[in-house]
Hints:
Bound molecules: tryptophan
Oligomer: single chain
Amino acid sequence: xxxxxxxxxxxxxxxxxxxxxxxxxxxxxxxxxxxxxxxxxxxxxxxxxxxxxxxxxxxxxxxxxxxxxxxxxxxxxxxxxxxxxxxxxxxxxxxxxxxxxxxxxxxxxxxxxxxxxxxxxxxxxxxxxxxxxxxxxxxxxxxxxxxxxxxxxxxxxxxxxxxxxxxxxxxxxxxxxxxxxxxxxxxxxxxxxxxxxxxxxxxxxxxxxxxxxxxxxxxxxxxxxxxxxxxxxxxxxxxxxxxxxxxxxxxxxxxxxxxxxxxxxxxxxxxxxxxxxxxxxxxxxxxxxxxxxxxxxxxxxxxxxxxxxxxxxxxxxxxxxxxxxxxxxxxxxxxxxxxxxxxxxxxxxxxxxxxxxxxxxxxxxxxxxxxxxxxxxxxxxxxxxxxxxxxxxxxxxxxxxxxxxxxxxxxxxxxxxxxxxxxxxxxxxxxxxxxxxxxxxxxxxxxxxxxxxxxxxxxxxx
Length: 462
Ligand code: TRP
């Protein structure tokens, strides 16, 4: 971002700068952790196909809408809706709640990554891969090292994010991630190439890449939609804020294509790294959200030089997770500042405390506070509930409201005009209109109804 003149909103320098900044925050645990385990859970190749189709239609339209709202109003999410229509400001407030609920559990998973980095760097890779992959579960439930250890790594991860924001080095971290992110991609390609030489990997690749229509279920759609929101950072006001920093002359349509293509490509690559090998080692469906932490250590344990590759890999994942966590936390902090009219430091202290409390809840949810409230995924605990409430409930609600707001309150015209403000025609205008006014709201409502029915045990989708 380059500083504008006083009073003017700072803006990104050019389309490429915008795409890189948005992609850097979009790429995170969603791509590396969530996408592979959902793919494994929801039928492999067919999930990938559904995901890609949704990214190109639904995700695309929603991201265009959000960025256009942001650029048109020049405001971040809480105030942007109010600016467009006095009565509907609350949609923005609702969207602003989502990051608040995501950051805590994001930091818990960040803590796991931190731990995996530390163990592999200190020569204990064999611990991570021991007992045929049961370490992750023993670790998070406190059986392996007590409940204190996951808490320490969570606290370190969260504190690092808070400190980065407090002392203002978050921009520096983001710059560093521009070097580390491409390196992460190179590492993923190298490790994947090694995996291809493992005997028995082929069946896993077939599972991942060839869609089996008989595995298509309601869950595939539910999972893929929730993943679109999460991975593309939609329905939480983030893209609105990003849009407010975008220059008028840059093309929204081309930027969105760029961001969504990069984000999807990274997810698919991460899936290729994790899903076939998990399938091969027989973890497939059994490990749910631990997939990344059980299958890769097995690969590293066999790989020549694995003892060096593993810590380097986890370090890069750690950075990708941290840049995303920082942008999420930043969204919470500025949301609090706007909402409660408080200064930055107090807002950061409030957000930090909330993260500590809710994060502790997620950690203890695998131990003493274990609950069966999440019938769809045994053992997902409170972390699973946070994940579900945000991605399968709040975000679809925010998205339906956003669609209805654009389709029927302000109408699609102002958004289309904003997209064309750069001087180029809006090439996917037809798609955009149909998606925003009809397809998205109808599908989202269906998903909400099925999701709720599932939650209350009326159906069993997951
Ligand atoms: N998209 C990020 C990921 O894939 C997670 C995320 C959701 C995020 N919302 C965000 C990151 C807002 C930064 C800002 O991990």
